[in-house]
Amino acid sequence: MAKLILSLDGTVMREVPLDKERLTIGRRQSNDLQIDNLAVSGEHALIVTILNDSFLEDLGSTNGTLVNGVPIKKHILQHNDVIEIGKYKLKYLADTVATGVLGGTSAEFEKTMVIRPSTAARAAEVGAGKGFGAAQVGVTATQPGPVGQQSGSISGQYARSGVQPPPTASHVSAPPTGTQSGIQTRPGPVQTNVHPLGAQPGQLLGAIQILTGPSAGKELELVKNLTTLGKPGVQVAVITRRPQGYFITHVEGANFPIVNGRTLDAQAHPLRDHDVVELAGVKMEFFHKGS
Amino acid sequence: MATLSEALEFASATDPGRVRAHNEDSIGTDPGIGLAVLADGMGGYNAGEVASGIAVAVVSAEIKRVMTGRSLSRIEAATGLTEAERLAVEHIAKANTSIFEAARSQPQYSGMGTTLVLALFFDNRMCVAHVGDSRLYRLRGESFEQITRDHSLLQEQIDSGMITREAAKLSQNKNLVTRALGIDAEVETEVHVYDTQPGDTYLLCSDGLSDMVEDEDMHLTLSSLQANLQLAADQLVQQANDNGGRDNISVILVKVKDDYAAPTGWIARLLSWFK
After folding, report:
1. How far apart are CA B87 and CA B81, in angstroms?
2. Residue of A nearest to B184 (CA)
3. Contact residues, A window 45-104, toward B, CB-based 8 Å cutoff
4. What is the pTM of this model?
5. CA torsion angle B144 B148 B153 B154 (round to 10)
């Protein structure tokens, strides 16, 4: 279950589990999380939690709500986000080790599950229109209980009349082996994986300099994932930028690229600093530009 | 006039990814009848593979079995659907029944299910049917577009305005589909027909690709590597793996190289049987 760590001036005050669909934050006593401080509005902010996602909304507070230093109106919380309300800080910790009712590893937790349209509609309905809080009453009434129970009920809906064993989602695939375990225990937001190039600190930028032919001297930085070189219809090769470095692969044409005098086969070939590539009669040099 | 298998080029790749031990995706292509089917199974142990395997096998075999001599463009008066759409819906329903029955009768398969996306090419057109979050994209000229709309919680949240498309990328609820085969006695299949053009490239994929590789990178890969469709498919899988490979990854590419209008007139149709 995801949680918030409330702190003031670096001192941890309490831990707040996000076990309700709606958690209100404000100065008044009626809030789920009361912060009795004049810089905090009576009804300051709201966190709506739907399955594994938590949405933070500022309820028009006087002094605003910040996430990682930026004022927000609505925000989908990410692991390690820091919410600031007045002088108070709330650190959001996502459910990194999924220990909900499905009780298993994160990879298993991420497995595709079926959610009934009715449930989905209700989940989608929360906050549609006027903001996250809009459909609150109906939702709370029909779907009480913590997040964990919600996911349980979703998968449980097609475990018919108690006859069936545990639902799809709770089955386990074989445990990861060796090198994979590092990946499996780190279920952070998918986003961290989506921009691999930006996230490759220290990966050298490669470039190609044309050595012969009319374009001799020209330089091309290989910033994209894929760069094709050559003459379409005659001979084309692609240079791919991968976490391990740059690779060249034949794409089309009767002739295959030549690297340092050796003709390649259809397999991808790693490029090293100062390799000389010959393609469609043109020689070019691959080199690293520094990071 | 090119026949289907002359006009269309197929390439595919499927990979367990870097985290999962099993590949629960299944793919099938039949260039002879212009069919591509992709399914992403779910369920414990090997049940996911069983479900997606049944889906692909039943749909491909059944459509092939009944197709000979039929005009897929014929429109059924009662429903307004083309024969292609009717076939797709009917045989996806059959696959659903097979999976549902298997899941009910065999405890180890209980709760298994699968998504499915299929493309059936006929008469310069394409019938697209899907259930769940497996997708079909189209590259036409410079534009790369997602043609199917996921049947998923996230898509519904996007539709209701709760999450923006950008924020959706950060959601932890990517894995919840609202429709799947094998879960109920009946399945609701979404089906459409689109015109195709020579030069189009279609991409069918499981969420193991679309969750791991940005649309713009898929676009770049398809447009750069059009000349080598198999390399494009392999590159897409490799990119998903390079980005973490958190789920099984499957890709089918279909490139329209030529016109494939259905022969008209009975003699032409008769002759086309013997090709």
Report:
1. 10
2. A158
3. 50-53, 55, 76, 78, 94
4. 0.74
5. 10
User: In which element (H, E) is residue A156 found?
Assistant: helix A147-156
Question: pLDDT tens for residues B182-237?
Answer: 999 999 999 999 999 999 999 999 999 999 999 999 999 999 999 999 999 999 99
Question: What SS3 state is found at A13?
Answer: strand
Question: Is A207 near chain B, with CB under 8 Å?
Answer: no
A290: pLDDT strictly greater than 90: no
- Smallest CA–CA distance from B17 into chain A, residue: A180
> Which residues numbered 189-248 in B keep a CB inside 8 Å of some CB on A?
207, 211-214, 217, 220-221, 224-225, 227-228, 231, 235, 238-239, 242-244, 246-247
Rounded distance between C-alpha atoms, residue A230 and residue A224, angstroms: 16
Whether residue A30 has pLDDT greater than 60? yes
Q: Do A115 and B176 touch (CB under 8 A)?
A: yes
Distance of residue B150 Cα from the nearest chain A Cα, in angstroms:
13
ipTM reported for the complex surpasses 0.90: no
Which domains, from first to last, does chain B contain?
4-272 (3.60.40.10)
Alpha carbon distance B100, B113 (integer Å): 8
**Alpha-carbon gap: B214 to the closest alpha carbon of chain A (Å):** 7
Q: Is the dihedral of CA B70, B74, B78, B81 positive or negative?
A: positive
CB-based contact B85:B76 (threshold 8 Å)? no
Phi, psi for residue A111 in degrees, rounded to 5: -60, 150
Closest partner residue to B21 (CB to CB) among A158, A173, A189 is A173
End-to-end Cα distance, chain A: 40
Please give the mean pLDDT across all residues of chain B.
92
- Distance CA(B217)–CA(B47), nearest Å, equals 32
